[in-house]
Amino acid sequence: MSGEKVSYNVADSPEEVTPPQTSSMAESGVDIAYERKIIRKVDFRLLPILAALYSISIVDRINIGSAAVAGMTVDLGLNIGSRYSIVLMVFFIPYIIFELPSNLVLRRVGPAVWLSSIAFSWGVVTIGQGFIEDWRILVLCRVLSGFFEAGFLPGCIYLICSWYMRYEVQQRLAGFYFFTNLITAFSQVLAYGLMQMNGIQGLAGWRWIFIIVSLITVVIAFLAYIFVIDFPDKLLQRSKPFLTVSEVEIIKSRINRDRDDSQADPITWRIVVRHLSDWKLWIYALMFMNLGVPGYALAYFLPTILKGMGYSIGMSLLMSALPAIPGVVVCLGFGWWADKSRLRAPFIALGTLFIIAGLSMTAYSSHHRVRYFGVCLCTAGQLSNVPTLFAYQSNNIRMDSKRSVSSALLIGTGSIGGIFASNVFRAKDAPGYRNGFWAAIGCQFLNLLLLACMTVYFKRKNRQHKEGTLDKPLENHPEFTYTI
């Protein structure tokens, strides 16, 4: 079976997609039911541990917002000048710089070793944040956290996309992101509970938020070393295999008949530079940066916004968690529908409209219920667009080396959205943050424009492919077409 490939084109609309029928697949030696059984094994082994680790990394990263309303701002003097914005911003500088180098190391040392090691490291650093007395030491801790966390999300996306066919991947990314954001959202509730430890061992409640959650990170890091799996082409060489040799060959065969890149191609800095010269990768990254602005803004500033509406600290933290519930429902629903329809752009556009409407309600309505509904609507659009954009860029590239570069560039550039949000949501504008909301809305309109341009370009290239008028094959493969 592994020696035979079944190739088919992926066109730019559901009506034009012509996958092989089940009978023809059977004639080619492909047992669809058996393939699905293997994929379920991969799902259960790969996704839960990565989602658990990423969720706790996000919790570690954004707990500073909960700690701020729990007394850290006063204790460390973060309410003086722009100190709080500086503390938020410095995280992203090493986070952006070390995304790509981390992905290159990941391939060489293996996901289990690398991902568990950096998770353990940032967990230790974040525990230390619970004991600091000077805001400048907090700045140093945030820089170290950004350095260690830099490689985690691009590594996860790179690894997940390496195991699945193009029109299976968004459901998996949505599931990964669903679990992550559900845990992340209710970390606000956990933070409120940990605040009640105020005074135990002479430590303020905000310090226990950092200490307890980061201890959980360290424990999960040890589990990751045991359970995280390698890439398909390396699984039998470096990891204790959970699949047989024939099952691994089936996985590789599926990938080859989808995009013909199951075997990793060599990667050097010259190849990295060549991939970075592809302008499309920068468009995906810019879109992800724009998407990151409302995401980071809500993560860092929502408790403050809700407190400004007159809610107590505890109620603000609780209400910060609840928008994730409708958000993950929309995220999973869009993920299933997008894979079934083999479309991406319409779902990105719809999610972006949700964000624009939600931000506008929150910024301008005088009714607290309408403003809060706006938060829910914005959260739904933002949560659904993250895995959709991951899938959009992954579906429209080939070669393992390019996937490594693209995922790192996407997330690294996306982190600039965190820097942008940290600066446009200024302390002096609290709790309304009107200027910040307008900046976030403007980023979403830019995304709609970029998406429209990419759609026109992809449709034109797919049409030229169909007519045989292309100067060279798309993504260096004669049967590749772009996903709209």
Automatic annotation (TrEMBL):
- Work out whether the entry's keyword set contains Transport: yes
Provide one Gene Ontology cellular component. membrane
The leader peptide range reads none
Coiled-coil residues: none
Protein origin, superkingdom? Eukaryota
Occurrences of domain Major facilitator superfamily (MFS) profile (ranges): 46-464
Indicate the principal place this protein occupies in or around the cell.
membrane
Subcellular location as annotated: Membrane
Matching entries from PROSITE patterns are given as: MFS
Any Pfam family from its record, for instance, is: MFS_1
Is Transmembrane given among the entry's keywords? yes
| Region of interest called Disordered, as start-end residue ranges on this chain | 1-24
Q: What is this protein called?
A: Major facilitator superfamily domain-containing protein
